[in-house]
Specification:
- The chain is of the alpha/beta class.
- The chain has a single domain, classed as 3-Layer(aba) Sandwich (Rossmann fold), CATH 3.40.50.1820.
- It is built from 16 helices and nine strands.
- The chain has a nine-stranded mixed sheet, with helices on both faces.
- α11 packs across α12.
- The two termini are 35 Å apart.
């Protein structure tokens, strides 16, 4: 059943003024390079690699071509109270399409799903034969890109606030009474909050990671041997690779000013997170091309949203929306990419502390940005999960065949 909208979305196109692209090229040409340079990536973004990326950005990267490709997707904006949400809404060409909300994380954007959306809305092969497809909704999270958040009062929980806005988008604006939700990074945490706060609306949750909240106070929960090894490895990973999260959870404004003013600084900050999170077996960013990275960076640069995107880290630390004691009781699929967090994957027993696991898939390749790195693997797992839970949604039990399944 579809309910009447509470607000009317308006179509939206990316139309970047030429003066903004001219200003960007001028800033790139006037980059002041640090005198400190070290080989490799162990100290952060590789200096020589960054020089090559910025040279390509200035003279080789064709933003107009990528802008046109982005505009091939149906974009909309809608005002909800004092917030403005941007989203892609790709309807399926199938009679039994399932509404699906796709949620990105940081420092990516809705662009994480640009190759996944057509695979889900117009699937091929076995998925097409099963008449399974999705009405896909892929928003820019509040504070990211073209989505402008409303000011939060002191003590407000940003993840819960974002979840509420997205629930309203799906149910009150688009009229979907029930929907699936998939996400990773902070988008995965929003997906979990949606399932906890609105279980009547969420059919199932597809996650590519557990979310950082499960590491809080975990030692107080008497972890088993495998769980303790996972916690120790996770803590080591964040000590060695968690600079962005540490800064953004403590003093985000200190770096936001520089990143918003310098395209070189912004690209370096974002590229380091991509390098750390990706499956780099085939290059510094794995299968993510320089043009894909730059298109994602452009969505931060042109909207000047790097500061607002980071502030959620700080606010969530002060007032967490999700704790290790919260539990999702809707069916959950975990699609684990082997190079996420440097290959530190959780044991199933640890995941089951907070999630009702219905599907457990260990994928053969990919990292933290799996939907962008391996769109076919991601889309196939999501479609398989949908078929699984829609067969008997009220009697769902975990399928033994998926207990340690590897595609």
């Amino acid at each position: 059943m579809v309910t009447p909208p509470s607000a009317t979305p308006t179509p939206f196109e990316l139309r970047t003024p030429e003066r903004e692209l001219d200003d960007l090229k001028l800033r790139l040409a006037r980059t002041r390079w640090s005198s400190s340079s070290h080989p490799g990536w162990q100290h952060g973004t590789n200096s020589e690699w960054l020089r090559e990326l910025l040279a390509h950005w200035q003279t080789g990267y064709d933003f107009r071509r990528h802008e046109a490709q982005l505009n091939d997707l149906p974009h909309f904006k809608v005002a909800l109270d004092s917030s403005q949400l941007h989203f892609v809404h790709q309807r399926a060409r199938a009679p039994r399409a399932v509404p699906l909300l796709l949620l990105h994380g940081w420092p990516d954007s809705f662009y994480r799903f640009h190759e996944v959306i057509p695979r889900l809305a117009t699937p091929t092969g076995a998925a097409r034969e099963a008449s399974q497809a999705f009405d896909v909704v892929a928003p820019s999270l509040p504070g990211f890109g073209f989505s402008r958040p409303s000011p939060l009062p002191p003590g407000a929980q940003p993840t819960r606030h974002s979840a509420e806005l997205l629930w309203r988008l799906m149910t009150q604006v688009l009229g979907y009474e029930r929907f699936m939700v998939a996400g990773g990074d902070c988008g995965g945490m929003i997906a979990q909050v949606l399932a906890i706060d609105h279980p009547e609306a969420v059919i199932g949750v597809h996650l590519s990671d557990l979310g950082w909240h499960v590491l809080r106070d975990a030692e107080a929960r008497s972890p088993g041997k495998d769980e303790r090894k996972y916690l120790e490895a996770s803590q080591k990973y964040f000590r060695e690779n968690g600079a962005q999260a540490l800064v953004q959870r403590s003093q985000p404004l200190s770096v936001a000013a520089g990143l918003n003013d310098s395209p070189a600084g912004l690209a370096s900050w974002i590229a380091d997170s991509f390098h750390t999170g990706c499956d780099t077996s085939s290059g510094p960013l794995g299968k993510i091309s320089p043009d894909q990275l730059l298109t994602n960076v452009m969505l931060y640069w042109l909207t000047q949203s790097i500061g607002s995107s980071m502030f959620g880290f700080y606010a969530d630390l002060k007032s967490p929306s999700l704790t290790p004691y919260d539990r999702v009781e809707r069916p959950v699929a975990l699609a684990l990419f082997p190079k996420d967090m440097g290959g530190v994957l959780p044991p199933r027993s640890f995941a089951e502390r907070t999630l009702k696991i219905a599907r457990w898939t260990e994928l053969p390749r990919g990292g933290h940005f799996g939907a962008l790195e391996e769109p076919e693997l991601f889309a196939r797992d999501l479609l398989d999960f949908a078929r699984q839970i829609l067969r008997a949604p009220e009697k769902l039990e975990p399928e033994a065949s998926h207990a340690t399944r590897t595609l």
